[in-house]
Amino acid sequence: MLSDEQAAELVRLGARIEAMVGLPMDIEWTWTGSFSIVQARPITALPQSEPPIPTEWKLPAGCYAAMRNNIVELMAIR
Question: Alpha-carbon distance 31 to 73, whole Å?
């Protein structure tokens, strides 16, 4: 198990590698008294980011919105 200091050092190493490459990286390492980077490659399985939830919806030019309800659909039933 890594100490807090070792984990922080590993994070710094990972950040340096990602900064050098410019991409999120999958980094493999070993610990034998100090860290050794065994392999680093771009992450290929990142989840897709969710698109923002729309706050407004504009109709295309020349279109209009229409709605039809029946009064019975709006009545509460006991």
Answer: 69
